[in-house]
Amino acid sequence: MRLIKAVLIATMLLHTSAASAAEPVRRLAHYTHQRWTEEGEAPAPVLAMDQGRDGYLWLATGVGLFRFDGINFEPIDIEPGQGRQDPPSAVLAARNGDIWTSLGETHRFAVYRDGALRASALPAAPNRVVAMAEGKDGAIWALTARFDAELLRLRGHRWRAFNAAQGLPRDDALSLLVAADGAVWVSLSNSVARLPPGAERFEVVRRTPRANGMLSQDPLGRVWLSARTGSYPLTGPGGHGPPPAGPPYRTDDAQIRGAPRFDRAGNLWIATRYGGVQRVAAAGAFGRSSRLIETLGDRDGLSSDLTNQVFEDREGNIWIGSEKGLDKLRPATLRSEPLLNHPAAFGDKLLSASDGSVYVGEADTIYRIAPDGAPKPILRGVREPQSLCEAPDGAVWIAFATRVVVWKDGRTLRTFNRPDTDSIIYDCAFDRRGDFWISAAAGGLLRHHQGRWEAMFAQADGERFHPMTMVRDADGRLVLQWALRRLAWVDYPTRTFQGLDLGRDATAVTLYPAANGDVLAAGDFGLSRFRDGRVDTIRAGALRGRISGVVQTPQGDTWLAYPRALVRLGAQDLERAFARHAFSPPDLSLGFGDGLTSRPHSHTQRALVQGGDGRIWVATETGTLWMDPRHIVRTHLPPDVSIRSLAAGDHLYRDPADLRLKKATSSLEIDYAVLSFADPRQVSVRYKLEGFDRDWVDPGARRQAFYTNLKPGKYRFHVIAASNEGVWNRTGAAVAFDIPPTFLQSRWFLALCIGLTLALLWLFYRLRLAQLEQRIHVGHEARLSERERIARELHDTLLQSVQGLVLRFQSVANKMPPGDQSRDLLESALKRADDVIVDGRNRVRDLRMAESPGDLPAILEERGAAAGFDPPIPIHIITEGVARTVHPLVAAEIGRVAGEALFNIARHAKAQSVEVSIGFTDHQLSVRIRDDGVGIPQEVVVKGHKPGHFGLVGMRERAQRIGGALSIESRPGAGAEITLKLPARLAYADKAPARSRLSNFLRRFGRAPVA
Question: Is the backbone peptide bond immediately before 871 cis, with ω within 30 degrees of 0?
Answer without folding.
Answer: yes
